[in-house]
Automatic annotation (TrEMBL):
UniProt family annotation: Belongs to the thioredoxin family. Plant H-type subfamily.
Organism: Dendrobium nobile
Keywords: Disulfide bond, Electron transport, Redox-active center, Transport
Annotated Thioredoxin domain residues: 1-113
Protein known as: Phloem sap 13 kDa protein 1
Origin superkingdom: Eukaryota
One GO molecular-function entry: oxidoreductase activity, acting on a sulfur group of donors, disulfide as acceptor
PANTHER family the record matches: THIOREDOXIN, THIOREDOXIN H1
Pfam families in alphabetical order: Thioredoxin
Length: 115
């Protein structure tokens, strides 16, 4: 697993399976950012997502490019970017679609406080 406070980029299905499997076993909140390089709102929210990873080291932050990992984004039914999926023990506990820079940190904090 990557160091605490870092966003873990998944660039292959094998990387996704590895990091997702480790994250699932950790019992921690997992926040997955489904993004695309051509997506303007994704580029705007990316530094905020990175700051959240630094601030909330008791959660795991994964990033998936929908063009690189089309099968993964289809499996999670991602149809718009950015989409943030919040997981606990491999199960979806919440979802946020769009670059909502105020709502994203609130959701992370709320879900961490529910643990």
């Amino acid at each position: 697993m990557a160091e605490e406070g870092a966003v873990i980029g998944c660039h292959t299905v094998d990387e996704w399976n590895h990091h997702f499997g480790q994250a699932k076993e950790s019992g921690k909140l997992v926040v997955v950012d489904f993004t695309a390089s051509w997506c303007g709102p994704c580029r705007i929210i990316a530094p905020i997502f990175a700051e959240l990873a630094k601030k909330f080291t008791n959660a795991i932050f994964l990033k998936v490019d929908v063009d690189e990992l089309k099968t993964v984004s289809e499996e999670w039914k991602v149809t718009a970017m950015p989409t943030f999926i919040f997981l606990k023990d491999g199960e979806v506990v919440d979802k946020l679609v769009g670059a909502h820079k105020d709502e994203l940190p609130k959701k992370v904090e709320l879900l961490l406080n529910k643990q």
